[in-house]
Amino acid sequence: MATEELKIGEISKPRFEFRTFGQDFDDAAFLMGRLSVPVPQKVWERESEEIYILSKANDLNNTKIRDGKMDIKTYVQTVQGMEQWNPLMKGEFPLSAAVLKNEVFSAFMVEAPVLDNAQYTYDEFIEMVKSHPQLQAVRVRKERYGYMVNNTICEVADVYINGAHVVSINSESTEIDDLVKTVNDLGLNGVENINYLQAIKRVIGWIDLPLAN
Amino acid sequence: MNTIIPRYEYRIFGNNLNSIIDQLKSLGTFEQQREIAEIYLLSKGNTSNNIKIRNKMLDIKKLVERANNLEQWQPFNFGTFPLYKNLIKHQIFPSLDVEAPFLEREQYSLEQFMSELIVNDPDILVALTQKIRFGYQFNDCICEYAQVNINGARIDTVAVESEIAENVLIAVERLKMSELQNTNYPKILKRVLGLEINYDIHKYY
Questions:
Q1: What is the ipTM of this complex?
Q2: CATH number, position B98
Q3: CA of B148: which chain A residue's CA is closest?
Q4: Cβ contacts of residue B71 below 8 Å, gap of 6+?
Q5: What is the pLDDT of residue B201?
Q6: Number of independent structural domains in chain B
Q7: Within a domain: B148
Q8: Taking phi first (over 0 means left), then psi (-120 to 50 degrees means alpha), and beta for anything else, what does residue A109 get?
Q9: B118 touches chain A (CB under 8 A)
Q10: What is the pLDDT of residue B3?
Q11: What does pTM read for this prediction?
């Protein structure tokens, strides 16, 4: 079967992902840089400020707000240790009450508050999150450095979770075999696959588990 | 309970404090490097008590006053686990500004205290910290810079402490720390854990 050639920044079929978080991935990052083919300049370095909305009731939907847009991905499956996530919804503020109730709060797996208005701004939405006992907004700043190894999209990132620094390293692909090879080639075999939701919940003290190092 | 003379303190946190750390290295006298693990107990309501456990010993620093942009803290050592239920009920939980649960035991080991009274209380958050601290003397003040891992995420800190406020103020100026906000440990831990957050929307457009 012919494999799909991935292009950074372009939409593909749902990808599998290996990602981990910790303080020191210098060796893997060095290998990633050496093994990478040249990548488009636009992905050499990217910076973003994002808000993640965490729910105590849910580890299956990953909700973040970037550039005023809400983006929810949902967990599909894990195959050979690689996680597959699919886009669930994308929306721009203001969001309608129907979307908030049926798509956003249902993704949090918590009861929606009473929604009297037809639509809600970002500020109004954040107020709902702040007053909800099972939800929490977390500020995440990312400085991401893109690579391409074994036809998988890779990155190393400095991530600041509510201002505290962690390093993340990852590889994404539609093809499991390429991903497994890349994780091996980067010396990350045996390192725990930790997604963003898990990492943030560990740092903010919701899950009593360490990061990978 | 042992008491120590309260000290004035100025502490900053950040991800790029290198110029201030270099200043401390060049002006101060290096004393010692220490690596320590500490458990901080936090709650939304408590802003004036710094509650931590180190080497099974529970310490509470109580905020005495804020003056001239400094904070004066009085440390109290509540002893080593196991701790008696009266102390837990009448000192520790009130310091957290959280109602104490029913205490079945006469005394609690650290493990019993954490697993039975703390980790499942929805009003209490726990921060596990690992610190690498570099201690200095400067201007008759106890100074340090440290790398602090908070539940695995790192932030750096620089601090100046003394029983004499004037000494701290001079040291802070000479180390060029004064442009950064004086921020105590409970405050930064609450920010990282999300109990205090700046939702400034403009950065997200």
A1: 0.86
A2: 2.40.320.10
A3: A164
A4: B8, B9, B10, B63, B65, B182, B184
A5: 43
A6: 1
A7: yes
A8: left
A9: no
A10: 57
A11: 0.90
